[in-house]
Amino acid sequence: MTFIKDFINVLSAGSISFTLLTSIFALIVYFNLLGGRIKAVGGMAFIGLGVFMLLMGIFVPPLLYLGIAYLLILFALARLGGRLWDTKVGLRLFVIGGLAFGLSMLDPNFFLIAAKPDNVPIVAMIFLLGFFTWVALRKAYLNDTQIAVGGIPWEKTESDEKLFTWPDLVYTELLCMILLTIVMIVWSVVLRAPLEEAANPTSSPNPAKAPWYFLGLQEMLVYFDPWLAGVVLPTLIIVGLMAIPYIDTNPKGNGYYSFRERKWEIGVFLYGFLVLWSFLIITGTFLRGPNWNFFGPFEFWDPNKLVPLVNVDLSELMWVKVLGTSLPKLWIIREIFGLGLIGAYLGLPPVMAAGPFRRFYNKMGAARYYVGAYLFLIMMSLPIKMVLRWLFNLKYILHIQEIFFNV
Amino acid sequence: MKPQEPIPHNYSIRRLNWIFALSSLGLLVVTGLIVGYDYIRGWKWFQLEFMRMQRERIVQEVQLASSAENKQLLANLDEQTRRNSLELAAHRDQYLSAQKAFDAMEGDHYRADQDYRFAKANLDAQRYIAEVSIVQHRSDAAQQQTEYERQTKHLADLQVRLQEVTRQRDAAKANVDQWLKKIKDAEDKRKELTASVDLLDKQLNLVDMDRFSTNWILSQPMLDFVNPVIKIDQVVLNDLSIDMNYMNVPRVDRCQTCHRAIDTPGWESKTEAARLSQELQQKLDAYDIPQEKRKETEGRIAELKRIQDAPSDILNPWRTHPKLDLFVGSASVHPLLEYGCTVCHRGQDRATEFGRAGHTPASPRMEHRWAERTMLTGGFFPLPRDFEKRNWGYEENEFVETPMYPRHYYEAGCIKCHSGQMSVDRGDDITKATQTVELYGCYACHKINNWRFSDLRKPGPDLGGIAEKTTPEWAFRWISEPHDFRSTTRMPSFFYQRNMVDPSVVPPQERAHNIKLQEAEIHAIVSYLFDKSTHRSWSPPGAGDAARGKQIVGSVGCLGCHVDTEQVKDEKTGRIRLAKREDFPLERNYGFNFTGVGTKTNAAWIYNWIKNPKAYYTDAPMPSLRLTDQEASDVTAYLLTMQKPGFMNTPIRPPDAQAVHDLAKGYLINTLSDRDAELRLRSMSGHDQLVYLGHRSIEKYGCYSCHNIKGFEGLKPVGTELTVEGSKALHLFDFGFMNDQQWKNEDGATEHVIHTVPSWVYNKLRNPRIYDDRRTKVYNDKLKMPNFHLTPEEARRIAMVVVGLTKEKVAENRMAGLDARTRFIEEGRKRVSQHNCRACHVVDGRGRAIASTIADANFFPPDLSPEGARAQSPFLFNFLKDPTVMKIRPWVSVRMPTFHFSDEETNTLVTFFAQEGQRSQFDTARNVNPTAQNVMIGKQVFTMLRCGQCHVTTPVQNPENPPVPNTAETASLAPNLTLARLRLRHDWISDWIRRPNEMIPGTRMPANFPRDAATGGFQSPLAMAIDTPQFAQYKATLLPLFKGDEKELKRTMSDAVALTDYLRDYIWSIGIIQMRTASPDGQAPSMAMPQPSLPPVAAPAAKSTRNQRGAPAAGSGPGR
């Protein structure tokens, strides 16, 4: 039991769980929905990655866990094959998830966090999120199979039918109302209002947490300069979401679920929403304890826990560690690597437009292509920065205190 | 039209109907859940349970009230009523006609009354019309005016008629009553007899919860909102608000919701009932209770007795407050409606749930019992069955910022309002606690920013001249472990403590290393102190006689502040053991224990110190007892015999060079690089290294907080500020790994840390290093608060003060002792405490620790309780500055020391005594010149009462310097009366003569004018005596003074007040009117003081002590 708990504690560490989720995301979404050649190649690649990590785990123990998890998941997926979208399998997954959660509740530390009245809705959110994502993908899978054999989507056949407002709509709405009322009442009776002490400007609670829906943003603050994580990125998230209808002009998938016809759109959106937003909320809620330290789900939130946090800038990394000299005085020289890296990153779209992404460029036109590409790049800067932090303790790629500009 | 194709339903309607039915049912059930959840709230059960207990109590009382005797009386009354009715029936016709007449008159009266009232209303309306018509110049103004007058007259007529009718009606009524009187009388008597039972019945109705009773119906679910019987009881306190950081919100104490009987006597616990009944009985026996309340008190004692005899004890939360006369009671100084509960007890005022209200367990056992609950409801809330087992489903609520003070810390709540007072009236625990804090000098290292603990002197002696006083070897051993030298010392142990050397918590290797480092630090501190010390040379004493010295020490008053033995007889075992501080009164712990002083210091130092402590350092708390050179030499000889040679035999290892190096370097590399630090160290000699490390170590341990040390002037105290420590959040206290742990203290007691602030502080005080247990820390990061070896009781007291120091503020009008008069008094009390006046004197009814060393009460230093009303301020001022200005009771061997008070300090004390005596500070009474006639009468009375037998009236030899009685008559022990005019207040004298025993119980002054037991007035012994033959000659002398009026003479002789006034006038007339005043430095002009109890000194001593010192005396100029 302790081993399993330790295993999960290690796995849930930001660096591992995030990487795992990103890859599993690819595994599930692409291989299970697309199949064929990609599946074979990708599968081999992941097996290779898993084995590599097992080997590296000898030197870096957490990687061992990661490797094991990889191979286990790969094995499970291989066993499941396309049946992942069967109702029975889905139900089974749901039950297994519930059971795992129930068993975890027996652990006092887990119980303390998960049963906290503040966090109960987030627990529910995990299950709801999983359920609805699965439902959507299942429908897309079914439609795709239909379309592949020349059929029409299920929504199309359904939309030809006619139904009465009463009872088909209003009656069910009434039932939902009643059931929801029941849930709300039970909730309010069983869980107490999570009141804390009187607000005090001179003493902040530890950990000081944002409201749950902003915990993703707060998590970003760990990796980015406040003006980026607090101002620029949130603004771009809103702007980006508003821009989606103008960028995404793919007429396919209108009114019906389909993955094959919109794999980039759905893939990017789901990654952004599930991994970069919801997962960070879950991390922030359940895994960030006192002093914003990371705690595994079965770990006690000890306010005295100390974690070494020594981060370096890219300039220090390159000049001091790699080149073995001191930092140049002039910032433009000192930050030359950072500037170069960022320049290269931002220079990717035109290069790609000429190269492998020519198809997109032609289809979308310059304006759509560049807006979409830069939004995507900025979105991807978060996982990139996270990985860099974990791998190199990298603080800032660009650190120009002279003009308060940090990236 | 084509018939429409049937459109299929998406869902089976039948199934939907089923779902609808079930979910509706579910909704009903959860609605029931809401109601039920509200219905079983814990506080409701407490109220129901209390109602049940009340019912039981009332039923018992009804049984008591309806005794057999009462039943007989009632039966008799019933019989009487029956007979009366029969009698009335015999005269039925007369009665009926009277009743008829009365009924008719009632009708008439009603009509007349109505007519009158209607007319009055009309008149008022008419007045308005008339006035308006005049103002508006209407044409009918005159007419309306006439109408108004007419109506006025009409009303007057009606009034006359009404009065007439009323008179007739009353007559008719009297006629009827005459017939009914007997029946009514019987009924009244009956009512009187059953009144108490009726009252009880009414009370029973209030708490009735029988099925289908009104209360029961009103308490049913869904009906209980109409007019609830079970409801929340609260006190709203607007001016004792709670600071919510952004605003102050009123305090709403709901404690009474469960603590039902808190302000109702009769629900005490058995032990409290025993205590209270005993107290009341004592008061009753001493006639302390006014006549009209005696019966009530007897009833209360009977009630308390019943509680004691009851089969089961009343448990909380239904108990009465144990100190109803002080708190909560409506007649107390802290009534419930004005103070509530949480102001003192703290806790969450609005909470009605046990755990949320901030209840704090006092012990782990209590915590565990509280936390228990059945899992029937999934453990969400406790149920009545839990409550019956006294399990409250308690959970520590970390968000309650003001958890209640647990048992044993209750009086911490007093500090909030009473911090401006030296002692809290009837708050013995908190008063003792603040005294303990003052005694140990907690305020020196931990700043406590309130009046009580500011402006206090440093608790330790000045170390600027340590080399003159003792040797480095002694100092090393002393710092290592002060308690080895002196078991009662207040100097705490800094070194070789639990976190450094205790084998049970420190691994052996680390332990050896720590010992080396500790030794190095002690060596370093000693080196620094002796390096910086002055080296003045003190003149040696003359040849002294130790035996005589011992006698002097025992008689002049040294033992008021000091103790001269370390061996005491244990009261329990009867064996001789090492003394502890609590073996002696607080005041005698003020000075050090003499034991071993000869080992510690040298003859010259002792000699000069006892002659003039201020010469060694100016802030020395020790006063000068004005010892002559010979006396000082004798005392020195005696003190030198107090040796403790064994102490100096413990070996001292030289400092470990590596340890000194490592420690010093550890400090140096804070500012220097490793290489520079190394260079710096190499440039220092071994001694310099030690001195450097000493400087840093003194800084580390904060020695300078308690001692004056050169090089540390003006530094902030070393400890955490404690001003608002009681408000510090629990999570800010570092429990280390000790939470919920047991540990064994050095005195063998087992302590248990629980997760509350009081527990943390208490354990910290018991052993300040305890929270280092099992922690891995580098040497300099280890806890360093020294160990005071406090007893559990002392630790509890100090912890109580600490948790009582909160940031909670109360409105100024609720603060105790803020008025100007009290401020003067409290300032004075602070001085009294600081100078340890209570060592010798009784002040505010407490003190005189020296009494245990003096056999005869007549040789006690004076009781100062009534001092303010007694002494004149100018005298008091001079006397305090220089006690040699007047010797009042020459036979007393204990000397009033010269404290070298500043003028300001002296004024504070003089003002204090005047204010406490409720007198104006200065008056013109000294210039009162009694008439010659009064003086002559007074003189005769003086002779008649034989006052001269004890009191001397011959003037002092030399009023200037010093006024010493010129007679050798000291056996009578009565002061020379010629000193009274200078010293005593004019009106105090006569008051004193009348009632000396009431002012100072046990005084030798006889009460010549005993009080009359019946009236309380004073009786005169001369009223009868004046007519006896023995007094004939006095009578003859006195008669002319009363112009031969014998009646007037006799009247005067029986008037105690007049007689005492005559006596006062006589005493006033013989008083000297000049005395020497004190010099600015409070130094007596000459040290020569004839001491009756000691052999006279051959030659008068030199003028001042300071001239006898050697060369360094130049340092203190003549102006000192």
**Average pLDDT for all residues of chain B:** 87
Report the helical percentage of chain B: 40-55%
Based on helices, strands and strand pairing, what is the structural class of chain A?
mainly alpha
Q: What's the number of helices of chain A?
A: 18
Unreliable residue runs of chain A: none
Q: What is the overall silhouette of chain B?
A: globular
| Main sheet attributes: strand count, strand direction, barrel closure of chain B | 2 strands, antiparallel
What do you see in this structure?
The complex is a heterodimer of chains A (407) and B (1120). Chain A is built from 18 helices and two strands. With 407 residues, chain A is mostly helical. The longest helix of chain A has 29 residues, at 120-148. Chain A has a two-stranded antiparallel sheet with strand order 1-2. Chain B has 1120 residues and is mostly helical. In chain B, the strands form five sheets. Chain B has a two-stranded antiparallel sheet. The relative contact order of chain B is 0.06. Chain B is 47% helix and 3% strand.
Task: Give a short synopsis of this structure.
The complex is a heterodimer of chains A (407) and B (1120). With 407 residues, chain A is mostly helical.
Question: Main attributes?
Answer:
heterodimer; A: 407 residues; mainly alpha; two-stranded antiparallel sheet; 2 strands; B: 1120 residues; Helix Hairpins; two-stranded parallel sheet; 43 helices; 47% helix; 3% strand; disordered C terminus
